[in-house]
Amino acid sequence: MAKSNLSNQSEIIQRQRILVVDDEPGITFLIQTKLENAGFDVLTANDGGHALDVIRQFGLPHLAIVDIIMPEMNGFEFCAAVHEFSDLPIIMLSSVDDEDTIVHSIEGHAEDYITKPFRPRELLARVKKVLKRIGDYSYILEMLIPIDNRLAVDIANQRLVVDGKSLSMTPTEAKLLHLLIRQTGEILSGEFLQERLWPQGAVDEGALRINIFRLRKKIESDPTNPTYLITHRGKGYQFIK
Fold first, then answer.
1. Cα-to-chain-centroid distance, residue 54
2. pTM for the full model?
3. Within 13 Å and on the Cβ side, how many CA atoms surround 158?
């Protein structure tokens, strides 16, 4: 069962949210207590499938701390699934202390890797460092993120609400929009977006332009004169609220 202090909505708006995914209750409780004492809002799940359910219910967190070896859906499977539709930052936390596993995790899934047993203060320091590196995005992480009076975004369920009408997004469109909204107002280069969308590097810039075009058709009143998703020639793309 997910644990959180989601009852006080005004407080959540001011706090960053972290999802802890681990099948060891003692470890989960230790991490949750340490993070909550440091001012974070915390959700928990006991395996990857449960974690996806929590995200669909509560929306994307700012960061996830994920064990590797878990029943039903392991940490790698969860990372692959959540990164289909989002750019959720992940710290892997595992008893597996194998160089190949660590390298595979960092190259393919995670921002950082910590081995068990771990020092809680070190974990907290790494959490803060990853969040700082990713960016201090401050939009409200509700399941349905309000952009303005005509547009709301549900990244977790790959859904838009535009002028009161619900529209679906592809996983790639949802991930692209997550990247752009997370750094609202900043110009993100095409190279950066391609690297985050397709880390294997097998897709060219044309695929990015196609997904930008498809998103504009869904969110803009006039896709030929966009007001949300702006192109800066030679620089990149910018999301404006």
1. 13
2. 0.85
3. 17
